[in-house]
Amino acid sequence: MRREIPLIITFIAGLVFVVQYFIPHPPFDAFEQVFTNWFAIVQAFAIWLGALSLMKFSMLKIRRKQKDWFMSVIIIVGFVVMVAYGAYDGFAGMHASPTYSFRDAGTHFDWLYQNIYTPLTSTMFALLAFFVASASYRAFRARNLQATLLLIAGILVMIGRVPIGDWLTSFMPAHYQASNLATWIMNFPNAAGQRAIMIGIALGTVSTSLRIILGIERSHLEG
Amino acid sequence: MKVARAVFPLVILTLALSCNLMAQKMKIEPALDTATQVITQQPPIAPLNLFAEDTPDDAGNSMDIRWDLSADDSADVTNYQVLRSDSPDGPFVVVGGTTKGQGSFTDNTVKPGQKYYYKIVAQGAPLTDSTFVSSESTVFGPAISSGQWFNTRRSNVLLWTLVLSASVIFFIYRAKSGGKLYIRKIAGIDAIDEAIGRATEMGRKVFYVPGINDMDDVQTLASIAILGRVARIAAESDTYLEVPVSKSLVLITARETVKESYSKVGRPDSFREEQVHYVTDDQFGYAAAIDGMVVREQPATMIYMGAFYAESLILAETGNAAGAIQIAGTAMPAQLPFFVAACDYTLIGEELFAASAYLSREPKLLGSLKGQDVGKALFLASIILGIIIEIVTKVDFQWLLRVS
Asked: Which chain A residues contact residue B333 at CB under 8 A?
C-alpha cells in the first residue's frame, strides 16, 4: 500500500487536472484553484523541513570542522537574526496604531533586507556578465563548421544591435544592413530553432505526464 | 492753439477708451460663441443593434455584448457606457465601458442562469464636470449566461493529446509484448555512467542540481526520476552523491528517491540524510551556495537537470572552472545556449524527459519514448501539410497557366 496510495493519488489528481482543462463548467473550473491552494498549504508546512535541514547541515559542518566551516556559522547567525527581527517587527506591528507589517519600509527586517540581502543578490546577478563573456569566448571559437556559423551569426546579431552597425554597413542595400540582418537572424533561423525545441518540449511534457499519471514512471517514488 | 491743446488730450483719451472697449468686446465675443456652441450641442446618435449573448467556452460567468457604433462615433462620441439591470424597466447600473470606435464589451460580473438586460449610452461632449450630452440605445434582453461542458477552443489540444496518448500507450503495450524497439542514442545520457565512473576513479563527489522550480513543474518531476537512476549508479559504484535543493518539497521527494535507490542496490547503510540537503529558495542565494561548494570541494562531476533561469550560467561556469565533467538538461529554451557553451553534454528539451526512460531500459518506458517520437513525427507531418495547404490556397498560381 505504501506505493499504491501515492500512485492512486497521482492518477486522480492528474486526471482531474486534464479534465478541468477541457471542461469549464462548475465544479471543474474551480479544481485548479483548489489544488493550487492545497499545494500552497503543503508548501508552507514543508518550509520548516527545509529550514531544519539547513540548520542540521550547517551544524554538522561546524561540528566536523569541515573546510570553511565558519561559512556555516554565518548561515546560522543570518537565519536567526532575520527570523528574530521578522518576528519582533511582526509582533510590534500588530500592536502598533496604525498596524504595520514586518515587511513594510522602515522596519528592522526591511533594513536588513534592503542593505544586506539585496546587495548580495545583485552582486551574484552581476557575476553573470563576466560568465557570459567567458562562455562566449569558448563557444565562439571557430573549431568546426557549426561553431563558425555560430560565431558569424553572433557577430552579425551583436553588430546589428548597436547603432554603429548600421553606420558601418550604410553603403549596402537596406535589406543587408546590420540591423535588418540581425532582425532576420532572430526572426527566422533563431525562431525556427526555438519553435522546434518548444514543440519537442511540449510533446515530452505530455509523454512524461502520461507516464506519471498512468504509474509507468515510478522512479520518483521508488528510485 | 490753446483750443487745440485742450482738445488734443480729449481726442487721445476718447481714442484710447474706444480701443479699450473694442478690445474687451473682441475678448468677450469668442467666449460667448463657445458657450453657445456647448449649450446648443446635439446629443450623438444612439448606438443601434445592441446584442448580448453568453460567452462561449467558459464557466458561465461572463456575457459578450456587441453594438453598432453611433453614426456620430467619429465626430461627437467620446465613449460608450454599458449599463445592466435585472429588469427591462431598470434601474440600470454601469458595469463598464469602452472608448469611441469600440463596439464590444465583455461583462465578467454576471451569474450563470440569471436574466440580464443591457443598454448602451453613447456619451458626447461634457456639459459640466460630471454630466455629458448622451443618447441611449434600446434595451436588449433578457440575456442569460451558462457554463459549457466542453471548451471547443481547445478541441485541437484534445485531438493532439489523444493522438499522442494513443501512440504512447500503443508502443508501451507493444514493448510489453516483446516487440523490438529502436531508440536513438542520446550522447548526454550515455555520458552519465562515464561521468560517475570518473568521479569514482578520482575519489571525488558527484553533485546533482535538480533546478530551482518546485514539484509542480514537470521538469522537476523528470529531474527527480533521473536522480533515482543516477543515485542507483552512484550507490553501485560507492561514489558520494550530493544533492543541494532549493525547495522544501523537492528536498523531501529527492531524499526519499535517493534513499530508495540505495536500498534497491542493497546499500541502504551507505545513504546519509545530509547527502540531500536544502539550501535556500532564493535564486541567487542558491547559486552562490552551490558555487561555494564547488570551489571548496572540487567535484569530479556536475549534473544539472531541471528548470533553470539566470543562475544556469553562474553554476555551469563555476563547474567548468573547477574542471568537473558537466552534464545538463533543461526544457528552458533561453538557458540552453548557456548550458551548451559551458557543459560537456546538454540534453535539449525533450531529451530531459526521455532521460529517465533511456537510463532505465525498461521496455514499458522505452515504449513510451517510441510513442512520443511517433507522435512528434505525426505532428511534424501535419505542420508540413498545413504549410502546403496554406501555400496552395494563398498563392495565385494562375500565372502558370497564362500564355504570353
From this structure: 194, 197-198, 201
| A70 vs A82: CA distance, rounded Å | 18
Give the count of domains, chain A. 2
Report CB contact under 8 Å: B379, A208. no
Domain boundaries, position A127: 69-134
CB contact under 8 A, A49 and B252: yes
Is there a single domain that holds both residue A30 and residue A78?
no
Distance CA B339, CA A183 (A): 24
Q: Do B274 and A60 touch (CB under 8 A)?
A: yes
Domain's final residue, options A118, A134, A150: A134
The answer to the question of residue A200 being in a domain is no
Per-residue pLDDT for chain A (223 aa), expressed as one digit of tens each?
767 888 898 888 888 888 888 998 888 888 888 888 998 898 888 888 899 999 999 999 999 998 889 999 999 999 999 999 999 999 999 999 899 998 899 899 999 999 999 999 999 999 999 999 988 888 877 778 888 888 899 899 999 999 998 899 888 888 889 999 999 999 999 999 999 899 889 888 888 888 888 888 877 665 4
Three-class secondary structure of residue A222 per DSSP: helix
The CATH number that domain B187-361 falls under is 3.40.50
Q: Which residue among A131, A136, A223 sits closest to B261, beta carbon to beta carbon?
A: A223
Whole-structure pTM value: 0.79
* Peptide bond between residue B244 and the one before it cis (omega within 30 degrees of 0): no
| Cβ <8 Å between B368 and A219 | no
Alpha helices in chain A (DSSP H): 4-22, 28-63, 70-95, 108-112, 118-139, 145-160, 163-168, 178-185, 191-213, 219-222
| Residues forming CATH 3.40.50 domain(s) in chain B | 187-361
Kindly give, in sequence order, each residue whose CB lies less than 8 Å from that of residue A115, ignoring residues fewer than 6 positions away: none
Q: Taking CB atoms and an 8 Å limit, are B341 and A208 in contact across chains?
A: no
Residue of chain A nearest B158, judged by CA positions = A22
Q: Do residues A81 and A53 both lie within one domain?
A: no
Quick check: is A147 in a domain?
A: no
Return the number of CB contacts < 8 Å for A and B: 210
User: Hey, is the C-beta of A208 within 8 angstroms of any chain B C-beta?
Assistant: yes
CATH architecture of B48-144: Sandwich (2.60)
